[in-house]
Amino acid sequence: MTKWIYTFGGGKAEGNAGMKNLLGGKGANLAEMSGLGLDVPPGFTITTEVCNYASSHDGVYPDGLSEEFGRAMGRVEAIIGAKFGDPENPLLVSVRSGARASMPGMMDTVLNLGLNDKTVEGLARASGDKRFAYDSYRRFIQMYGDVVLGVDHHLFEDLLEDHKQGKGYSLDTDLDGDAMQGLVGAYKALVEEELGRSFPEDPEEQLWGAIGAVFSSWNNRRAVTYRMLHGIPGDWGTAVNVQAMVFGNMGEDCATGVCFTRNPSTGKNAFYGEYLTNAQGEDVVAGIRTPHPLSKAEKAANRSDLDSLEETMPGLYAELLGVRDALERHYLDMQDMEFTIQQGRLWLLQTRTGKRTAKAALKMAVDMCVEGLIGKSEALMRVDPASLDQLLHPTLDPKAPRMILAKGLPASPGAASGRAVFSSADAEAWAESGEKVVLVRAETSPEDIGGMHVAEGILTTRGGMTSHAAVVARGMGTPCVSGAGSITVDVDAKTMRAFDKTVREGDVITLDGSTGEVMQGEVPMIRPELSGDFGALMVWADETRTLSVRANAETPADAETARKFGAEGIGLCRTEHMFFDPERIIHMREMIVAENEAQRRAALDKLLPYQRQDFEELFTIMEGNPVTIRLLDPPLHEFLPHDEAGLEKVAEAAGADLKGVRQRAAALHETNPMLGHRGCRLGITYPEIYEMQARAIFQAACAVSQKGLRVEPEIMIPLIADKREFDVLKAVVDATACRVAEETGVSVDYALGTMIELPRAALRAGEIAESAEFFSFGTNDLTQTTYGLSRDDAGDFIQIYHDKGVFETNPFATFDVLGVGELVRIAVERGRATRPGMKLGICGEHGGDPASIHFFREVGLDYVSCSPYRVPIARLAAAQAALGGESETND
Ligand code: ADP
Ligand code: MG
Ligand code: MG
After folding, report:
1. Sheet strands side by side (includes 480-482)
2. Would you state the pLDDT for residue 889?
3. Looking at residue 529, what is its pLDDT?
4. CB 453 near ligand 1, within 6 Å
């Protein structure tokens, strides 16, 4: 036979904390606390199965419920020594909803249930306190009227205000017994007027009314919407807790409060909470009176002059401290508790694992491990890797006022302030003169790289979370707001308009890349501290993980950041980013518009020293760690200006005739550049480009190794589809290596491998591995080519795909394990079958995505590579993957 009701209280419980599915979170923890011997007012939990039964049987309850109910109620009455509905000595109860997961939007709690015109008199006599009895009664009518009968709570609050004003009082506590009684009369009249029937006087009717309301609230619109948004299944159901009332509103020796075993915003191991004397239920959070701090320390920290519980009730405070320790040691995590003090006796009403900020989660995990409460593995699982992002970027001071101009997409986290500039060239010019700038563009293109590099923040009015601006900004760790559609940019006038405000070039604006907000002026920021806790957690992560973590970096600054964050090498150095510097792009363009190989080589010779210098710096910074350099990848037209004036400049600089340059630019135009003349296809057509790059790499490697530093270059050829492409280019690179070794007399070891970013390459991996020494999965392109979906053009409809449930997650953000993953799996198997133990990594955006990292470990990759700012995230996620789990996000 199914058991429908579980009792708790009186030092015992039929349930426990492991029974959340059946008893809901609140009921399970009330049972657990009772079982621990803590003072919990006696009561019982009607299970979630009753909720499910009733909702599938037109609201009819299962057989046997009422007998169990009668027995459970009898038990509560016996423990309390009062009887539900008894006019002389009435038992009052609360009816509290409680699902498996906490769900705001469900029905609230009803307190003081069981009062009517007769029992209230009995309560007044039994307690010798009329004010208390009528205060409880008016609270009950308001709560029941609001949550069960559907009378707007504002109407009750207005009546209360009228009563206070009529008597010249400011606080609820000023109202005496007679005044409360008057208020009760007014409340009942209100209910009758609103509903056309009187307030239910029969306690049984009240009780079943409240229980029924809790159960049916499971299917109200708010709850259904909430469940949909949070992925909570409808068949979980809610439980109902019926519990004897304890009273914090019986006078000045009574109180009610909420507390956290540690500070939920800083994580500090200090008892934290608030209370009010002579108050009940939600008074503390409702802001009716200013709540008081619990401890003297907190009072001092807040410069409060309100008496702390430690001062007013030192004995009870000490008892509460004992409960704090007991619960934390029992649950081994920070608890969020509710308590009530009735005439000198402490009662516990709720405990649950407390919500916390990212900062607090980190600190608590490390502290609890150091304190010996939890082990290192558990500490690692306690922190959500994605949340570390918040700790790595400067954030806006939450207390600072802000004037919001617009809201776009939170494309790259962190906050930035700077002078608004409207072109990449202006960004570089202002930055040159030492100003901080925010680059504002309709959208960005590879031409904007220079400006993006120097900008503190990037704002675009078009494009989504995976637009060029968003992807590049995340890669650089630069805050970015994209797609702020309510802003219009006038590039010629160098202004932008947001609503009625105009921002001119040089005006300061602030972006919050974590919320998408764009603000006028400078908003003060808080700098992240890579504090001791962060470092400690990272050390544990490194001890635990099996995947290596590298960074995608091309500038010395990025490489330094990557090292600082613990990268074990560079997994992707995109050489094209190195050509956008103003003094280099000229030579690049000369090379592109050259009419023959000789001219091309002349231009490449001018680029060579720059490239060599870049690589020398990277090798030096990465000291003996592998540096994977990808040879030129994007189509050449990305390096040419798009306007006539720009082309004129190119012609002038290259000493070429304008018509020829124009023709060359037109010839380079492609219908579908993503699938066009790029990657190794450039190397096959113009081997001298790859030759120059290889030469720069080998010369740099020689120079650095001659200084006594170990170098480990890994040269990577992009967009290979066929082994023969690879072999043609391998010949170029190997020959160059020989020549440099002859010239310098130094030979350095290097590895030559390829990106796997086309489905064909994944399928033919076995063959390609005969020549290629390593693979790096370029999951951005591999996702694009597997789906046949251009990331840059998907922005407009991917949201609709999402809304219609076609895509659960964006495959460009979270790796598609099923489809793209199968190609990766095939390539891993076939590659390693040819070349056992071959080194495999991943260098797409997904390398820094915690959910994706689990797959990369499982499939057997050696490393992931991600943007420098995501390195710590990847280190933690890799540790969690090694531990075989993912941290629960704290909701
Ligand atoms: P929520 O889920 O919104 O927190 P609760 O069921 O916890 O709702 O109750 C709301 C408030 O009423 C809390 O402050 C709680 O401590 C208080 N409360 C609930 N039941 C009782 C009771 N039996 N005696 C005294 N206070 C109670
Ligand atoms: Mg609560
Ligand atoms: Mg690619």
Report:
1. 403-407, 517-520, 508-512, 415-421, 437-441, 457-460, 480-482, 409-412
2. 43
3. 57
4. no
Q: Give the integer Cα–Cα distance in Å for 112 and 685.
A: 84
- Around Cβ 534, how many Cβ atoms within 10 Å? 20
- Long-range residue pairs from 786-790, CB within 8 A, at least 24 positions apart, any chain: 786/759, 786/816, 786/819, 786/820, 786/823, 787/811, 787/816, 787/819, 787/820, 790/674
Q: Pick the atom of ligand 1 nearest to 339's CA.
A: 16
Mutate to test the pocket of ligand 1, among 96, 246, 340 (most ligand atoms within 8 A of CB): 96
C-alpha torsion sign, points 350, 355, 360, 366: positive
pLDDT tens for residues 494-546?
A: 999 998 899 999 999 999 998 899 999 999 987 665 668 999 999 999 999 99
Cα separation, 290 vs 173, in Å, equals 13
- In this structure, the chain runs to a length of 891
Q: How many CB atoms lie within 10 A of CB 152?
A: 12
Ligand 1 mean position, distance from CA 106 (Å): 14
Provide the H-helix boundaries in 90-197: 119-127, 130-143, 153-167, 177-195
Residues in the chain, pLDDT under 50:
889-891
Task: Name 415's bridge partners.
Answer: 512
Q: What is the pLDDT of residue 102?
A: 81
Copy the structure tokens of residue 425.
């060239």
Q: 505: left (phi > 0), else alpha (psi -120 to 50), else beta?
A: beta
Amino acid at 781: D
pLDDT of residue 21: 97
Residues 6+ apart with CB under 8 A from 24: 45, 48, 97, 98, 99, 100, 238, 239, 241
The answer to whether the CB of 116 falls within 8 A of the CB of 201 is yes
Residue 144 CA to ligand 2 center (angstroms) comes to 17
Catalytic annotation, residues = 468, 843
Task: For the chain, report the end-to-end CA distance as a whole number of angstroms.
Answer: 35
Q: How far is CA 852 from CA 385, 816, 818, in A?
A: 12, 8, 12
* Cβ pair 587, 679 in contact under 8 A: no
User: What is the pLDDT, as a whole number, of residue 856?
Assistant: 96
Q: Which ligand is nearest to the CA of 280?
A: 1
Q: How many C-beta atoms lie closer than 10 Å to residue 580's C-beta?
A: 20
User: Is any atom of ligand 1 closer than 6 Å to the C-beta of 308?
Assistant: no
Q: Is the CB of 116 under 6 A from ligand 1?
A: no
Average pLDDT, rounded, for the chain: 92
Give the neighbor-by-neighbor strand order of the sheet with 335-342. Answer: 292-293, 272-277, 255-260, 335-342, 345-353
Ligand 1: residue of 282, 284, 345 to mutate (most ligand atoms within 8 A of CB) is 282
Residue 130 has a pLDDT of 96
CA of 169 from ligand 1 middle (Å) equals: 27
At residue 886, the pLDDT reads 65
CA distance 309 to 298: 11
Q: Compute the distance from residue 777 Cα to the ligand 3 centre, in Å.
A: 9
Alpha helices in 555-632 (DSSP H): 556-564, 582-593, 597-622
pLDDT at 890: 36
Q: By C-alpha distance, which of 289, 146, 295, 297 is closest to 210?
A: 146
